[in-house]
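Exercise 7.
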Amino acid sequence: MNIIFLLKIEDYMLPCLNKKFFGFECMGCGIQRAFSLLIQGEFIAAFKMYPGIYPLLSLLGFVLYTSFFKVKYSNKIIIVLATMTVLFIIGNYILKLINQT
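Solution. The predicted structure, written as tokens, is:
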């Protein structure tokens, strides 16, 4: 039953318009597939697909947690997590551009 649900999710993934029109991937390319792999339990494959998935999920999880519970220094923690997420995404994008040529 779970496999059927995942196949349907993959059928509705959005295409990358940047790649379609300009011929190269954007900074978000791979995040949908990485999330799908994460749901399937393929944690290493998800990281290889989109390395920013784990810092992004950590950031989103922490922001969601702080909306229900008060955390000391939450603003500083959010800034650190957001910075890590941005660095992972930009680093991944630069590596993709270097490996394309």
